[in-house]
Amino acid sequence: MSDRPSDGKSAPNFIRSIIEKDIADDKYEGRVATRFPPEPNGYLHIGHAKSICLNFGLATDFDGTCHLRFDDTNPETEDPEYVEAIKNDVRWLGYDWDDKLFHASDYFETLYERAEHLIETGKAYVDSQTDEAIRLTRGSVTEPGTNSPFRTRSAKENLDLFRRMRSGEFKDGEHVLRAKIDMTSPNMKMRDPLLYRIRHAHHYRTGDEWCIYPMYDFAHPLSDAIENITHSICTLEFENNRELYDWVLDNAWDTPRPYQYEFNRLNLDYTVMSKRKLLELVDQGSVEGWDDPRLPTIAGLRRRGITPESIRDFCDRVGVVRADSRVDIALLEYCIRNDLNYRAPRVMAVVDPLRVVITNYPDNESEELDVPYWPHDVPKEGSRRVPFGKVIYIERDDFREDPPRKFYRLAPGREVRLRYAYFLTCDEVVKDPDSGEVVELRCSYDPATRGGDAPDGRKVKATLHWVSEDHSVPAEFRLYDRLFSVPNPEETDGDWKDNLNPDSIVIKHGRVEPSVVDDDSKIRYQFERLGYFWRDPVESSDSALVFNRIVTLRDTWAKISSGGDQSSDSRSGRKKSLKAQDTVGTARAPEPKDKRLPALSPDQAKRANDYVDRFQLEGDDAALLASRSELGDLFDEAVAVHDNPRSIANWIIHEVLRELKDDDLTSIRLEPSALAELVALIDDGTISGRIAKDVFAQMVESGESPSSIVDRDNLDQISDRSQLEPLVRSVVESFPEKAAEYRGGKQGLIGFFVGQVMRKSQGKANPEIV
Q: Mind listing the pLDDT tens digit for each residue in 707-739?
């Protein structure tokens, strides 16, 4: 079932080799201690699963320990709900931290003491510049930064200011604590990075005890050191942080100390791996909640029915290397099928039923057939009794009144095999007189073919699954597919959400054989010819069965994407399956960058690098802005008016470019100050992001300022609870069943209710207050 080494350990990788050498050199007296340090600001996804498997797996393989430590240094985004969800996810994946559960907030006092030590030794200072001034003096990749005018403060003055920052004398942003390193360093992370900031915010664990909070790059290495971590393993985006990691420990800690090692993050096709974007999908009601089975969240994968074993196998197969790449989702699906093939008993269900009356079968009679749970290639035993009678259901797709070439299933006058039962011939087609839709088939069976073979040796070309009308059980079938319709939804024209797959869930109402009713609800099945399914753990009940499709029997996506025939015979399906297995374990090389981008000139490249370094823009976003001088100028002028570069860049790339198409900026009426004003209206809560798009459309058409449009059309965001409460109450009363489910513990429905309120308010409600 797996390609894991015979000793049960994970596949070899460069981090394992480092640990083996450290043990041989007795670097940590033979000790191995790793940690998984999530920030509790969202639910974990399959990318985190790779890190969990790596950190806990290495600790297990080397008889060490792995800590679960919550990086809870940002009180504005963290929530106990996320803490509990993360614990559940780690346990479900098969790992346990024993007594090694920690929080960065456990160390706030120690971190503060270490900060004072840096001040006392002249290696940190309180900077009273504004955020904008700090940003402007940071320099760029090609230009050094400049020293703060407050860099020469005495240790005594810095210590006094820092203690007053802690006591709450100052407002947010009035002062920060910075490391005193080198403003000319080629690594911009080393240009006097921030160590502490003022945040008058309630922390979910420490309450209002603190109003200053350490930055990640200060808290993280010291937390590792406090816990005696030996190998601090993180993804490649933290490679530039390593020099700062070392500086903090070299200057604020004694030996022994850990070291940081970076590996490739998991980039999976047909989904997004950003917690911010996943949160956006949840908040906007694009999915039902964090546990929506279409999401790559561990909660979603678990609810869909994917097993922890298959995820661990997948994480092992994708490997641990030093270069980023994209992984084809077909590899994950292969691992799921590979696991379920030996785990899931075979039963029969019909998701789109077509009624079949067997005219020559005795009236008011039925029989039971002994049917195996497992095929010959699975070394397991077991069977069940499946009832058969005069009226059965088959899949509607298994019949064609006018069959195309190479369609071998049921058609008028054609004989097929009913799985485990009899040969069946279609004699008559019954249609609805109004719609002309086929509603029933009248067929005859050959009693001599019981079990599926003909005594005279005649052959049929197709075998169909079926269920008995009188004995089968109604059920809802949720046919899940890939969340996005393109491999990399973030690297296409327009808004990334425009690439959501409209058929990512298709709901069918059919029937399933009665043997499943008394089974344990956690059993995963292979519904013959349909795929792998299990009962939805949230919404299924004994009186109303709901089955989630975990994965199809083979990868049909390539045919769907290319417009190929999805009803091809099983022979081609076997070829596809074998081909998928032959390529398993191969992570795809990175796809070409944004196809809208021409080759950049040296000056454009310099501008793009400046955007990355000064504003921390994504590389493709920066390059796209720099590739057209008019876009770069619009960005620069808008940022000069309102200092939110990422949001302004996002609006230019996704909204302005969509409006421009192939034209230049003169084709629309948009001033940089107006764009900046629009983003400011969103940032200060005057309007919602949804309303902002409508305002933008009017701006570029009329040339009006966004404020005048908002005032004229009364588009202000509704944040007053007294105004929102009636809307919320109305939505809750409109969906009593979902409200009852939410109160009963289905917390994922919160996204649904927020989305309904947003629709009812025409996008004006403040989603956070809702």
A: 888 877 778 777 777 777 887 888 888 888 777
The two three-digit tokens of residue 769, written as one number: 């207050």
Q: Which two tokens stand for residue 753?
A: 């209710």
40 DSSP assignment: S
Cβ atoms of 587 and 485 within 8 Å: the answer is no
What is the C-alpha separation between 451 and 455, in angstroms, rounded?
11
**What is the rounded distance in angstroms from the CA atom of residue 670 to the CA atom of residue 369?**
73
Through-space distance between the first and last CA atoms of the chain, rounded to whole angstroms: 47
Q: Please name which of 367, 547, 543, 377 lies closest in space to residue 471, comparing C-alpha atoms.
A: 367
- State the residue for tokens 């498997």: 53
DSSP 457: -
- The more confidently predicted of residues 108 and 266 is 108
DSSP 720-768: -HHHHHHHHHHHHHH-HHHHHHHHTT-GGGHHHHHHHHHHHTTT-B-TT
User: Tokens in use for 340?
Assistant: 């379920």
Instruction: Quote the Cα angle for 82-86-89, to 5°.
Output: 140
The count of C-alpha atoms lying within 13 angstroms of the C-alpha of 321, restricted to the half-sphere facing its C-beta, is 12
Contact 270, 356 (CB under 8 A): no
pTM value is: 0.71
- Cβ(504)–Cβ(294) under 8 Å? yes
The residues annotated as belonging to the active site are: 39, 265, 275
